[in-house]
Amino acid sequence: MDTQAMHIANGIVDGPVSALFAVLAVLALAFCVWRARADLDDRLAPMAGLVAAFIFAVQMLNFQVLPGVSGHLLGGALAVVLVGPWVGALCVSTVLIVQCLLFADGGLTALGLNITNMALIGTAAGYLLVAGLMRVLPKTPGGVGATAFIASVVGVVLASQGFVFEYWLGGTTDLSLATVAGTMAGVHVLIGIGEGLIAATTVATVARVRPDLVYALRRFRPAAPVAEPVVTTGGAV
User: Fold this and answer.
1) Cα–Cα distance measured from residue 119 to residue 96, given in angstroms and rounded to the nearest whole number
2) Among 58, 104, 129, 220, which is 20 to 30 Å from 88 by CA?
3) Residues above pLDDT 90, as percent of the chain
4) What Cα–Cα distance (Å) separates residue 114 from each residue in 24, 108, 207?
5) Separation between Cα atoms, residue 147 and residue 134, nearest integer Å
């Protein structure tokens, strides 16, 4: 198993399991496209392009985690905070498809596995955390930055454990499941912390300058109080 990056190469997981997750990824992305149509507007569409470009750039940069082991950022939680879960999943998926087809980063037969882990599990976990935390943390740049940090750490670790599940179903190497699970969890906790710091800094900066462009601040703001109707009485003179 190549531990140099989060991307899964061809042959690490057998054909039937890879095909199963390819079908799952297609169905899930089709659902995301359907739901994203309601979110896209004049503010979100350009932000989605910027988020995809940013994720593409940071994923191309591998950094040292431990001797002989490196990893890269995923960007799911960052995407959720800025553009929401449906558009965010599509942004990450677009990056993974481009990387696979143009740069051979991740196997073609493993594309469904990679999309499932990084674009679906990562963003789903991030969204659930963001939705919960933004209801208790202050709706400020610091609050949304803390939310992005926590969601990044948890989302990256859960995405890595998605691969552990896939490896359990159809892994083709001699490594034990315990070894794979422990290695992936330990390394990706550190990756998640690095990603969390970058995501927190990014979203806090955007929230400070243009809070209207941060999906989490718009979507999870408290409802405006409903004004009580004013009842007036009058009489004839």
Assistant:
1) 8
2) 104
3) 56
4) 12, 10, 30
5) 7
Strand 63-66, strand 69-71: pairing: antiparallel
Say yes or no to pLDDT of 7 above 60. yes
pLDDT at 229: 54
Output phi, psi for 129, to 5 deg.
Answer: -70, -45
- Residues ≥6 apart with Cβ < 8 Å to 14: 170, 171, 172
In angstroms, the CA 124 to CA 230 distance is: 44
Q: What's the token pair of residue 156? A: 């990256």
d(CA 56, CA 167): 26
Helix 85-103 × helix 122-133 angle, to 10°: 150
Dist CA 98 CA 59 (whole Å) = 12
Amino acid letter, residue 173: T
pTM of the model as a whole = 0.85
Distance set, CA 27 to CA 7, 118, 236 (Å): 21, 16, 68
CB-count burial class (<10 Å; 0-12, 13-18, 19+) for 38: exposed
Rounded CA-CA distance 87/76 in Å is: 11
Which amino acid type is present at position 87?
V
pLDDT-wise least confident of 77-86, 99-108, 142-151, 155-164: 99-108
- State the alpha helices, DSSP H only, in 60-110: 76-83, 85-103
